[in-house]
From TrEMBL:
It comes from the Bacteria. InterPro entries: DUF7684. It comes from Telluria antibiotica. It holds the Pfam family DUF7684. Residues 7-142 form the DUF7684 domain. This is DUF7684 domain-containing protein.
Length: 143
């Protein structure tokens, strides 16, 4: 498995969430650099699941809270019943003290896999006041 490219999306804290359109199931990498309101974090988690994220890697501030929110959003999406395999959402949490972003990107490109779905598309969701599109895309490309 080797995902070559990723789309970058900058989300300032508390921003409106864009329509991601009709996309195939994808892997999302949430880079949380800023503090966010808890309700917005949960809204983003629901939005990711509803948009087709089937694997979410959370890195940065409150990475555990992000994974908890995505886990709950995935359960909510199937009315807290057992999710069919194609709707199962995998999540991983990555603390900046333990892993550099380069390691998270490498794992996303070379190892992250869903048990039944191909996840060829990657969306990097950068939660920060200011965008850093070029350096983040370069880091992903180099991973």
């Amino acid at each position: 498995m080797h995902r070559q490219t990723a789309a970058y999306l900058h989300l300032p804290p508390d921003a409106d969430l864009p329509d991601l359109g009709n996309r195939p199931p994808f892997l999302a990498i949430v880079l949380a650099e800023d503090d966010v309101a808890e309700m917005w974090l949960w809204d983003v988690a629901r939005w990711l699941v509803a948009s087709g994220a089937r694997y979410v890697q959370a890195w940065g501030k409150d990475a555990d809270a992000w994974t908890e929110a995505v886990d709950d959003a995935a359960l909510e999406a199937v009315d807290y019943d057992d999710a069919p395999d194609e709707r199962r959402v995998l999540v991983t949490s990555h603390a900046p003290d333990d892993e550099d972003i380069d390691e998270v990107f490498w794992f996303a490109k070379h190892r992250a896999a869903h048990p039944v779905l191909p996840l060829d598309a990657v969306l990097i969701v950068h939660v920060a006041d200011a965008p850093r599109k070029e350096p983040i895309e370069a880091a992903y490309t180099d991973a």
